[in-house]
Amino acid sequence: MADKLIQDIPLSILDLAPITEGSNAANTFKNSLRLAQRVEELGYNRYWLAEHHNMASVASSATSVLIGYIAGGTNTIRVGSGGIMLPNHAPLVVAEQFGTLASLYPGRIDLGLGRAPGTDQITARALRRNYMESAQDFPDDVMALQTYFSAENSSSKVRAVPGEGLDIPIWILGSSTDSARLAAHLGLPYAFASHFAPTQFMTAIDLYRRNFRPSQYLREPYVMACVNVIAADTTGEAERLATSFYQLATGIITGKRRPLQPPVDSMDGLWGDYEEAAVREMMKYTFIGDRKRIGSDLAYFQRHAQLDELMVTSHIYDPEARIHSYEVLKSVQNTSVLL
User: Fold this and answer.
1) CATH (one of 2.130.10.10, 3.40.50.10490, 3.20.20.30, 3.40.50.720) for 6-338
2) Residue pLDDT, tens place only, 218-244
3) Which helix H or strand E contains 281, and what residues bound it?
4) pLDDT digits (tens, 9 = 90+) for 270-289
5) Secondary structure letter of residue 262 according to DSSP
6) What positions does the domain Luciferase-like occupy (predicted)?
7) What is the pLDDT of residue 339?
8) CA pair distance 65, 232, nearest whole angstrom
C-alpha cells in the first residue's frame, strides 16, 4: 500500500476554547464559533472540543453544551468531543446528551472518550465521588454506551431516549498503550494526544494497528493524532506567536496556570532551563513556522506516523492570528510545498 501523504488525509481541529488574558468565556465562545465557521469554509473535517475543569485558560468544561453551540452555528463540519472524560459522567447521561446532539445535527456528531478526569484529583472527586473506581471501569462504561446506542437495547429496562438506534461514532482517546489496546480490542477508531503526551505515541499506534480486531463499527484500524501547529506568514512571526503557548505550557509545568497570555519578544525571565526543557519535551510534536517550514516538518512527521487523519490545536492569543494559522496550514496541504 502506498504511503499516505499530508495531502491525502483529512485535517481536523481540536479546540480547548482558550480564555485569553483580559477576556472572558463569552468572548471565547464567540471566537470558537467564528473559527469553526471559517475552517468549515476551508474544508476541515472535524471540530472537536476538549473537556477540562478548574482551569483558568480553558472554557470547554460543559463540553456537550458547547458542541451544540458550534454545531448549531455551522452546516457541514463534524463536531464532537476530544473528548468527554468518561469517569466524570454516568454513561446513560452521556448517551442521552449525545443522542440529543445527534438528533439535532444528524450525521455530524462524534463522541471521543477519554479515561482521565481532565483535571486535578480534588476537582475529579467534586465531579464524581467514586472517580478512581470509575476510571478502572472505563472499558465497561464504553461498552455500556455502545449498548445504549444500539437498536437492540429497545427491550431493556434502561434506555437512552434520544440516543437509541442512532449512528454516533465512538472514538477511544488516549496518551498511552492502555488506550491503544482497548481501541484495538473493541475495533474502534483511535485518537492519540501527541500534542501534550508524545512519549508513547509511536509505540501506541503501532500496538493498535497490530492488534486491531475488525468490528461492526470499523473494518480496518483508523489512527488520528493531535499535534500543535502555529503557522504565520513568516517563521519569525510564528515563533513570536508561539510564546503565548510557551507561557501556557510553563504554567502547566509549574502549577501556576493563568489565562492565555499575549505573545512576548523573548521568554527570558519567563522560564528557567528546567521549565524550558520540560516544555519542549512535552510539546515534542509542535510545528511552528511559515508555509515552507510547516510543510516540510509535517511531511517528515507523516512519513513516519502514516496517520489516517491529522488533528491540530493552536494556542494563539489573537483570534485573527489563530484563524490565519489554520488558513496557512490548509494552504500548505493544498499546494506542492510538501513535496
Assistant:
1) 3.20.20.30
2) 999 999 999 999 999 999 999 999 999
3) helix 273-282
4) 999 999 999 999 999 999 99
5) P
6) 13-247
7) 42
8) 32
Read off the pTM: 0.94
- Please list, residue by residue across 138-168, b when 16 or more beta carbons sit within 10 angstroms of its beta carbon and e when fewer do: beebbebbbbbbbeebeeeeebbebbbebeb
Which helix (H) or strand (E) covers residue 63, if one does?
A: helix 63-72
Q: Can you read off the three cell numbers belonging to residue 57?
A: 485558560
Q: How confident is the model at residue 116 (pLDDT cuts 50, 70, 90)?
A: confident
Q: Which residue has the cell 516544555?
A: 279
Strands (E), the chain: 11-15, 46-49, 78-85, 109-114, 170-174, 190-192, 223-231, 286-289, 309-313
DSSP-based three-state secondary structure for 215: coil
List the chain domain ranges.
6-338
Please tell me the distance from the alpha carbon of residue 45 to that of residue 79, in angstroms, as a whole number: 9
285: three-class secondary structure by DSSP: coil
Alpha-carbon distance of 101 to 82, in angstroms, equals 15
All 3 cell numbers of residue 128? Answer: 464524581
